[in-house]
Amino acid sequence: xxxxxxxxxxxxxxxxxxxxxxxxxxxxxxILMVASDRLSAxxxxxxxxxxxxxxxxxxxxxxxxxxLGHLCPNHLTGEAPESVVxxxxxxxxxGRSMLVKRLRPVPVEAVVRGYLAGSGWKEYQDSRSVCGxxxxxxxxxAAKLPRPIFTPAAKAQAGEHDENIPYERVVEIVGPxxxxxxxxxxxxxxxxxxxxxxxxxxxxxxxxxEFGLDENDQLVLMDEVLTPDSSRYWPVEGYEQALANGExxxxxxxxxxxxxxxxxxxxxxxxxxxxxxxxxxAEVIEKTAAKYREALxxxxx
Length: 301
What we know:
This protein is of the alpha+beta class. 32% of the residues lie in helices and 25% in strands. The chain has 8 helices and 18 strands. The strands form 5 sheets. Strands 7, 8, 11, 12, 13, 14, 15 and 16 form an 8-stranded antiparallel β-sheet that branches. A 4-stranded antiparallel β-sheet has the order 1-2-3-6. The protein has a two-stranded antiparallel sheet with strand order 4-5. A hairpin with a 2-residue loop joins strand 17 and strand 18. Helix 1 (53-68) runs parallel beside helix 8, helix 4 packs across helix 5 and helix 7 runs antiparallel to helix 8 (282-300).
């Protein structure tokens, strides 16, 4: 397995480097998306890669795209990513890349929550609502919501935090018909995926989708989908106990890294969550890699 912190495809023009993905232009109508092994926490990219992470994310995304096509078209071209790079560059893209259609991105993060967690739980404690969606009294941390809710965010510039926005703001950005289509499609995908995951013993607490428009202005699911980087996955075992204790359930993601970063001290002080990130110890890297592997194996078994 080739570990890739930062890809270097010289035969194609680089479009952008995200927190995890490096995107290259293939002609005017396609993009080669390479999932690196980078990991970001608190919006800061770690210096050390998580071995296998890019391949795991790609396998999971493809597995989900395969099962969700009846709900919304996706950006896959069906062509082999290896076909657009030089033979010497194949090891950088093999198993970790998608060759996708070039779309006009919708500037809204489509977040769906089925459970109260993270920033949603914080907001609920203050206002009994999340992103302007009112919720009943008496919910606790990690509680299942009466029904999934659409809690969009505005896509931030690189290095900035995405900002939660009310549904009315989505209507202003994309118009009422498109806003409604994004909300209904996102909730339908989440409900379908959550039911599939539950059969595998996994809870999808929340997730975010990204959409683009094709040349016919059709809504298309793009980027990654339902990976541990874009979704909060909990194993069913341990959930009830965590709920009863008001704690966060154990999760299949970078929680090990977040917890270690919260606890680490630099010259006696907590890390201020600005670059550069502290060096991750080998044990944290391996535990995080193992969690990603377990998520993929459990889902696809």
